[in-house]
Design goal:
The chain is α+β, with helices and mostly antiparallel strands. The chain has helices spanning 63-82, 150-171, 207-225, 235-243, 247-257; strands at residues 5-8, 11-12, 14-16, 21-22, 36-37, 45-49, 52-60, 86-88, 93-95, 115-116, 122-123, 134-136, 141-144, 186-190, 193-196. The protein is 31% helix and 20% strand. Helix 2 (150-171) packs across helix 4 (235-243) and helix 2 (150-171) crosses helix 5.
């Protein structure tokens, strides 16, 4: 058995046959408060989140199960929206046509705050971007673990920044989402453990990237449990790499800590 479980609630944009962005509002169903169950197993659900489609998977206790859960949800939902001549986009952020944002739900960002592990759990400010039409898609991962304190969660999230967010700076083609979300240390407390909110959705489109998420969380858990790394020593470099998309700094950290890049 694994020493942790892993779930996720990825967000995705839809596009039509011509590649034009299409809002999820009124087309998918489900809300944050009342997600719509999917007929593919317990724990799978979908909801409209601003203009994006958000789906939930149940917690997995192995890399194979985690990959399978992502693939199962992606396949079912892709087939479902294809009935309306729509498909999922690979974009993690985009400036939307104003006519697609002419709806209160499209102008509402997540009401629940998230927190900054590097600031001892201080609340992160609400997202704001100079481009009011900018929307983004997260690929948040849900780590199931019996943490003993908030402090343990903070230290673990910092380790996730090193093992996931730093190499993701080299792997994720998107560089606009962080104007809204995805700064280092972003997380939420959860009854099952914590939600790591830094990653975009770039990893849900290929099984090898989904495997990378599992393996990198596994390495982060091991490094945190066994106190293998003093992550605070490179906190400033991690901030520069992640928050500023500084690929040169990220590459140096990858080399120093032998981080996984696929």
């Amino acid at each position: 058995m694994s020493k942790f479980t892993l779930g996720a609630d990825p967000e995705l944009f839809m596009v039509d046959a011509a590649g034009a962005l299409v809002s999820s509002i009124g087309r998918i169903g489900g809300t944050k408060e009342h997600p719509k169950p999917l007929p593919i197993g317990e724990g799978f659900a979908v909801q409209e989140d601003n203009v994006a489609v958000e789906y939930n998977i149940p917690p997995a206790d192995s890399r194979l199960a985690f990959r399978g859960n992502i693939s199962k949800a992606m396949s079912y939902l892709s087939d479902t929206i294809a009935l309306n001549n729509l498909k999922f986009s690979n974009l993690a952020s985009a400036s939307w046509p104003k006519e697609q944002l002419n709806n209160r739900a499209a102008r509402t960002f997540g009401c629940d705050p998230d927190f900054d592990a590097w600031a001892k759990g201080a609340v992160n400010p609400k997202p704001r971007a100079a481009d009011k039409t900018l929307r983004s898609c997260g690929g948040h991962v849900h780590v199931g673990y019996a943490f003993n304190s908030e402090e343990e969660i903070w230290e673990f999230i910092k380790m996730c920044d090193l093992f996931l967010a730093v190499p993701a700076t080299l792997m994720d083609p998107d560089d606009k989402r962080k104007e809204l979300y995805g700064k280092r240390g972003a997380f939420r407390y959860k009854p099952f453990g914590c939600e790591y909110r830094v990653l975009s959705n770039f990893w849900v489109h290929e099984p090898r990237l989904t495997d990378w998420v599992w393996d990198s969380v596994d390495r982060a858990v091991d490094a945190w449990q066994n106190k293998k790394i003093n992550v605070d020593a490179d906190g400033d470099l991690i901030e520069l790499a992640v928050n500023k998309n500084n690929k040169d700094v990220a590459a140096k950290l990858v080399d120093k800590y032998h981080l996984m890049v696929v």
